[in-house]
Task: structure prediction
Amino acid sequence: MSMVSTANLPTKMANGNGIKKCYRGHSHLSTSWTIYVVDPACSHDVETYGEALSPIDAFDTKEQVETLYKLPAFKPGPPSWSMNVNGGAIAIFQGGKYGFPVVKPEWEDPASRNGSEFRFQFDPQTDPFLVLDKAFHALVTWMTGHELYEETRLLGLFVKNTNRPGNRDPASIQFRLWTSRMPDADIFRLARTIGNDMAEVLGKVGARGIINYKGLDNLIRRANATTQKEIEQDSKDMNAIRLKFFVPSRSPRMNGQEQNHGY
Result:
């Protein structure tokens, strides 16, 4: 299995942040991380999603990240093995070891409140399974080594097969990165920085597609909307803060219009 080294990360990230050596020589990350699997039978239902989550492993060193697919959680196979099942999902989120606060991969978790999502969808003309394992590993390496952007934290990452039973759409294989809240005055600057960095990481391992940025609170309201009026209003709200990033990297789009670098 090909592993991802820091050579595949943007230069300014290669040293990570907050990594410390212990007396045994292990390079400890600034927080621990928990690996979750999601039961495909329950993953599409908002009411049963919480029951579908199962924490199965935790790690806290750079060395464990470098050999990610040797952890017991991936003994059955790498992420591509799980993504062959419609509704399959794997998540890696902060906390869960040595007393670090646990951030659950759920909208209801306080750390996610008013946070953001960067959702990568593969180009439908490509086969996501050709690069999926490398891309997931590259994103985990970046996220765990650079989990803090000023005051905003990278909380966790999903890889998901969002296909409904019976469907087989390559664009439904997605990566979803969640962050904590960004200060209102800096939201577009930070969103652009994180989105560009994520696009660079994915592009370096050969992934092709688009990253969509949206606020988690908008996604929650959309999921819980019951009337057509609520759905239409939530769509307007989501469009008002939408950003797109291309993989391989080029200028981001804001609300569907291509932007030059720098707002």
Q: What stands out?
A: The chain has one domain: 28-258. The longest helix spans residues 187-204. The mean pLDDT is 79.
